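Regression test case RT-17, inverse folding.

Input:
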């Protein structure tokens, strides 16, 4: 079992735990455009700690300050799956079994970043949830809406209807030093308001969890139930959101991983604004530049990202990047490690023209690329977005040329393909099937996954959601209720 498998195996019920800081004074509601808002979504004002270091009495005061802003997050999900897709989707395994619907409940942690009820937790804590509830430190238990979630960084933003709540301050994870003292607060094994302390064991850890791995490693005890909780520094600021542990027995062995809060700031801001995260796309596949590869390429040193493949018609291809190039700088930022490049590209807005330095055959070239928007190949609309309306229970994908050819679709077919239908879901009850092409939703043309999401958001609460689907060359309407 590799590190990634072990981490994911035990992180789902509850990996991470990170402490938070309590700040008096309420923040205002989030404006429609956070980028132009005069009131920030969170504060970075630290708890006042007089000691230059943090002896036990200071930790006591910090714990007393941060615990009111740490919450318990419980989610209920329907654990049911429809038969897996068969032809014309040869990349999907053939599994004719159909499982009986059943509900499952999971527990995690979270922390309040805004006095009007915005809470940060992990994506995996609320993934596929049909109901989410939050228990506050004062004993109140409230329903929560999933404002947005991002699987690539394992982050989610929740909203509860409450005001004048205690909040936490967000610090600067880039300033963390190995050996620095940190404290975690959360709900391990459902034991609420648990505090553990330790140090930063390492930074920049890559554990194979996703394309933007950059984890903080800590030996502060983290156990199932801590997922989504905060890790705080000696100033009382959140520096990470715990998301995974390394364990062979399910308990803490002193190796936990937290998402850097600097990464979370951008994600949370976008989730609050639009319910989703937009990222830049360059269009290259890269691999680690090892000393052996560097020697074979006649390249001095092993820094940079080796381009293994360039996607046709991508920004990289149009910029002149070639297979075998080594990208050493992007938009003025050095690419020291392979893992640096995906994060740098993701942070760039679509349409931005950036210089890229590459090493090719012993020479350094400066090219220019116009960043495009990263489009999800698949998008799960089983979970609702900003307003947490009921889900459809389907997984859909855009129609690619390869998919259209495999399905024998007429040229120019617009819509999205249903890849999976969850048993017992509203879509399954309405008769939607894997392989259907959704071409309209409530009489609105559907040309992308985002079109379907927007149609879901606009649908009326008291009437069926009307879908026009194409199946075996014939069109039919499907009315989804619930």
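Golden output:
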């Amino acid at each position: 079992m590799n590190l990634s498998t072990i981490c994911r195996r035990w992180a789902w019920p509850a990996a991470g735990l990170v402490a938070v800081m309590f700040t008096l004074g309420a923040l205002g509601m989030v404006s429609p455009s956070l980028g132009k808002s005069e009131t920030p979504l969170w504060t970075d004002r630290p708890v006042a700690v007089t000691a230059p270091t943090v002896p036990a009495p200071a930790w006591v005061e910090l714990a007393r300050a941060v615990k009111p802003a740490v919450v318990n997050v419980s989610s209920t999900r329907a654990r049911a799956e429809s038969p897996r897709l068969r032809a014309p989707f040869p990349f999907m395994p053939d599994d004719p079994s159909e499982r009986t619907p059943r509900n499952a409940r999971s527990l995690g942690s979270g922390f309040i970043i805004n006095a009007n009820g915005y809470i940060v937790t992990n994506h995996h804590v609320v993934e596929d949830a049909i109901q989410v509830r939050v228990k506050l430190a004062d004993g109140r238990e409230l329903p929560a809406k999933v404002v947005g979630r991002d699987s690539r960084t394992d982050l989610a933003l929740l909203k509860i209807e409450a005001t004048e709540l205690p909040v936490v301050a967000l610090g600067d994870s880039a300033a963390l030093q190995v050996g620095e003292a940190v404290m975690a607060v959360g709900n391990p094994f459902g034991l609420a308001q648990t505090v553990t302390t330790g140090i930063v064991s390492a930074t920049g850890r890559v554990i194979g969890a996703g394309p933007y791995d950059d984890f903080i490693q800590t030996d502060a005890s983290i156990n199932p139930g801590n997922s989504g909780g905060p890790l705080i520094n000696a100033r009382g600021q959140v520096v990470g959101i715990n998301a995974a542990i390394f364990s062979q027995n399910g308990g803490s062995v002193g190796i936990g991983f937290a998402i850097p809060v600097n990464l979370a700031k951008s994600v949370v801001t976008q989730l609050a604004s639009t319910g989703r995260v937009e990222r830049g796309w360059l269009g290259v596949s890269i691999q680690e530049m090892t000393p052996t590869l560097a020697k074979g390429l006649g390249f001095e040193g092993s820094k940079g990202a080796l381009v293994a493949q360039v996607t046709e018609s991508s920004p990289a291809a149009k910029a002149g990047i070639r297979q075998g190039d080594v990208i050493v700088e992007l938009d003025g930022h050095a690419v020291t490690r392979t893992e640096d490049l995906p994060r740098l590209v993701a942070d760039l807005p679509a349409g931005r023209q950036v210089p890229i330095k590459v090493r090719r055959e012993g020479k350094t070239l400066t090219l220019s690329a116009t960043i495009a928007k990263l489009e999800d190949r698949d998008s799960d609309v089983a979970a609702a977005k900003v307003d947490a309306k009921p889900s459809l229970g389907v997984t859909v994908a855009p129609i690619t040329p390869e998919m259209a050819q495999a399905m024998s679709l007429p040229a120019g077919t617009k819509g999205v393909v249903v890849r999976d239908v969850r048993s017992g879901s509203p879509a399954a009850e309405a008769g939607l099937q894997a392989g259907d092409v959704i071409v309209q939703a409530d009489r609105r043309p559907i040309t992308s996954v985002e079109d379907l999401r927007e149609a879901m958001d606009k649908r009326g609460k008291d009437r069926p959601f009307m879908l026009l689907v194409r199946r075996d060359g014939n069109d039919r309407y499907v009315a989804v209720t619930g």
